[in-house]
Amino acid sequence: MNTRRRDFLAAASLAAAGSWVLRPARAIAARETGQPLTTSLTIVFDERRADSRAFALRARMAGACIVPLNDDIGALWFRTLLPAAGSGRSALGGLTTHADAFLIARFASGIGMRMTRRTIDARMGPGALVAWRLDHAPVQTG
Amino acid sequence: MNGPPLPPGVSEGDFRLALAEFTAIVGREAVLAGDVATQAYLDPFAPGDAGAYRASAAVMPSGVEQIRAVLGVANRYRVPLWTVSTGRNFAYGGASPRLAGSVVLDLQRMNRILEIDDTLGFALVEPGVSYYDLYRALKARGSKVWLDPPAAGWGSVVGNTLERGYGTTPYGDHASMQCGMEVVLANGDVVRTGMGAMSGSREWQVFRPGFGPSYDAMFMQSNFGVVTKLGIWLMPEPEGYMVCRYAFRHDADLERIVETLRPLKLDDTIQSNAVIESAVRWAAGVSTRSQWYDGAGAMPDAAIDAMARKMGIGRWNLRFCLYGPQALVTARRDIIHKRFAMINDAQLFDFPYRDASVEPTGGGDRSQVGIPGLDAFNLLNWRGGSGAHVDFSPVCPTTGRDAVRQYRMVRERAAQFGFDYYGGFTASQRYMHHVFAAIFDRDDPAQSRGAGDLVKALIEDAGAAGYGQYRTHLAFMDLAASQYDFNDHALMRLTGAIKQALDPNGILSPGKQGIWPQRSGEGGR
Prior knowledge:
The complex is a heterodimer.
Chain A: H1 5-31, E1 41-45, H2 50-61, E2 65-68, H3 73-85, E3 91-96, H4 98-109, E4 113-120, E5 129-136
Parallel strand pairs in A: 1-2, 1-3
Antiparallel strand pairs in A: 3-5, 4-5
Helix pairs in contact in A: 1-2, 3-4
Chain B: H1 12-26, E1 31-33, H2 35-39, E2 57-59, H3 64-77, E3 81-84, E4 103-106, E5 113-117, E6 122-125, H4 131-140, E7 145-146, H5 157-162, E8 178-184, E9 190-192, E10 226-233, E11 235-236, E12 240-248, H6 254-266, E13 274-278, H7 279-284, H8 301-311, E14 316-323, H9 326-340, E15 347-350, E16 354-355, H10 363-367, E17 387-392, E18 395-397, H11 400-416, E19 423-427, E20 431-441, H12 445-464, H13 477-482, H14 486-502
Parallel strand pairs in B: 2-4, 3-4
Antiparallel strand pairs in B: 1-2, 5-6, 6-10, 7-11, 8-9, 8-10, 12-14, 12-15, 12-16, 13-14, 13-19, 17-20, 18-20, 19-20
Helix pairs in contact in B: 1-3, 6-11, 11-12
């Protein structure tokens, strides 16, 4: 991953906006220093976007596993994200375009995960990125 | 938002009893009811109020016997069921029912690939099998056959075929590649079509007609039964392939493109379905609108021209694929190049001939060699916000005159509503699917309503000009169906008679494709 100066600066600007996605992993990492994480967080990032790369860097520092979005998103889901999300104690997150967030949310709903999302800097218009997090949720049954 | 609606004409007490009986059949985890659960079935791209098509609950059977039992309960309590395979019919309504308060009969748990035959090139699948699932299964067993994916590879093979979806390989007309179905009728009877009507048939997936009348098409885009198994033909992997892309500089080139293309399609020189994409459709796959134009209203010609030049694309862009041994592919390519080179300023790109085992990288190119993808959804980023789209999908004869007429009609009407012409044609031999997507921000109520109003106006315009829809969103199914009006709607009278005979209680997908059961009258709609 490219970690140029611009990425570090962008990471700082995004810290407040996207940190809620990372919170649990960081908390667990702090609680269990030196221990393997019992709850995993996998962060998806868009390699084409500096802000997203910077976010991934921050996520990695917080103890999350990071996955670049450089392939067909369906292939990525089946090959990487579905296995990563398989356990009820796993979470997924990301800073991606709206389209990618939509697709991942729909795939994840099939295994009972629910998305929380916030647009980061809506003033950017169509180029705005969406910070999102997917957690397993209890299914409401009849 | 209020809670989910009850099925029309069903009391709360009866509905509760029906849900309890559904639960006894399929299990507690497979009945979804309540506010949160039913919201998952709302149309994320609804052009207007998604709640207008809200389900009351969802039931997810895991097999044919469970479906039969569920139908029994639905008949007893008169609970309407809206059947979906995986519920990803986005731009046309998603998993939402046409009739609010219907219970979604969600078949995603029926996801077995029952058979793959590499020798004869077919698969037999259940409704919950997606194109990704089938593709992965083919790869896992090293099959030398290709599937034909639609633009959205996560869709159900059964669902897309029943909706007469299409792709871009030579097997792109999915309905015509279907062979054999198993259908559960509203009364619980299980029927197999074609040769499948013969117990122990070895020909179910190879000869569609059978002996006597043929019914497969009757269960497509209809509400006459629940399709539980479907055979689909698969394309033998060719020795190699060549992807070709042509860029045409002028907006006025469309007529000549189609006139040049048609004979090459009719004599099978071009084997794949051929895709003609407008500049905006191409650009929306790889960029956002504000990179090129930030003004109000539809993008003006000058902005589109400037965008096309910078991107190195045409105002119209043609994409197709050739298959077979290299000598044959090259011969076809040379003939095709020669014909299209006669169009002024045409840029003809072809990519190297590749062995079939080599995968191309771009989404459109990958789909032409049988690899499912989801790149088509990049259009959601075009206008920004929570991007969504609703599609206008008329059939267009493969003539330049018709293509230009439809294009102008759509582009001008779209501009009146402030929408860009995001459209294109997928050409078969004698017809083309002309699909225009009205892209909008679903968090913007005005844009959302505008998209719905635009598509309604377009359907009316097209109908007046003699062009019918091949598929449409829930909101426009009645309108589109009403245009098939020869002899005072004789076709719908026939359809209604069949519906009444097969489903007298009107429990299966009321309103699907404008087909309403007699008992619903106008009040239930």
